[in-house]
Amino acid sequence: MPADSDASKTAVPEAKSPPTAFGKGFITDAWYFAALSRDVKAAGLKRYELLGEPVLIGRTRAGQVYAMRDICPHRAAPLSAGRLVQHDGEGETVECPYHGWRFRPDGVCAAIPSLVQDQAFEADRIRVRSYPVVESQGLVFVWMAADPRNPSAPDHDPPVFPGVVGGDAKLVEWMDFDSHVDHAVVGLMDPAHGPYVHQQWWWRSAQSRHEKAKAFEPRDHGFAMVRHAPSSNSYAYRILGGKPATEITFRLPGYRWEHIQVGERQVLALTCLTPLTETTTRITQIFWSDHWVFDLIRPFLKRGARAFLKQDGDMVNLQNEGLRYDPALLWIDDADKQAKWYQQLKREWLKSRAEDRAFANPVKAATLRWTS
């Protein structure tokens, strides 16, 4: 057989996993948390990565937040490495550091400095992809469209979180996990891993595991563990005094928050999961509170939040040792029911967008029972 005979064979394209498959693809036509408002400085340019796309987020001197693809269409230099400038008749523009091309906050090219006067080139026909941005509750959200080259306008607003009180966030911690966002989400909502992964004495004793029953109901683009008294083996709630009542909510594409009320006082613990790439997810934990004890315990809470993130991150790295063999995953009720709901929500979201119809929440009210 000739040595080059294989070259004549028809190449078979590699099969691609559907975007609805667990651990594959992203939820699009959705608002993703990108940054804290306080981190987007006036006249500043900062590079982020969202869903595998480089995104420049900036703020004009007048206070307007904007986002555009962080690649100059001329020679691909990152626009975030440039500066915000102002020229007569142009307003404020982002100037590319390579050749000085200037782009307005909406992505339209305002000027190409290398052109001479008699070269009739319409610079404003050149555009850098821009992204809708909303700034709310001290957070910056970016709309990631299913078709970035022909994006539709956002048809819903970013989430509004309860309990954002006391001005600026009291505490912010973040960490990048080597994980697809799907694995990060279900790891976050997994109720059974606590006694094995998080064994701080001040949180919960490994010897205090007992059966729990919690009521859940569908919510906007997600579901919630309805308001209830915290479990008796959760030590951390006791320092709040009174009779805390907590509600835990999950919403697509990756938000989970716990809203605690103690009389008239509130605590909000928000976790935002932002996929940077297919294999990296940023976990950002943000806390607000008007409870007087919060300022006293903040140093301890900061260390605790960091410890929780590191423990979860270490477990993700350990899990990756098994995931690289692409095994089938076994999900059981009721401890894994929230993970199943997430998968159903993701599938329905992508299907409803593809079929151009309203999202129909697949979650049904239920009481789940597990031991932790």
TrEMBL record:
- InterPro entries given for it? Cholesterol_7-desaturase (IPR050584), Rieske_2Fe-2S (IPR017941), Rieske_2Fe-2S_sf (IPR036922), VanA_C_cat (IPR044043)
Which PROSITE patterns does the UniProt record give? Answer: RIESKE
Rieske domain location is 31-142
A Pfam family this chain is assigned to = Rieske
Q: Which UniProt keywords apply?
A: 2Fe-2S, Iron, Iron-sulfur, Metal-binding, Oxidoreductase
Sorted alphabetically, which CDD domains does this protein's record hold? Rieske_RO_Alpha_N
Q: Name one GO molecular function term.
A: metal ion binding
**PANTHER family the UniProt entry points to:** 3-KETOSTEROID-9-ALPHA-MONOOXYGENASE, OXYGENASE COMPONENT, IRON-SULFUR DOMAIN CONTAINING PROTEIN
Q: What is this protein called?
A: Oxidase-related protein
Organism (species): Brevundimonas abyssalis TAR-001
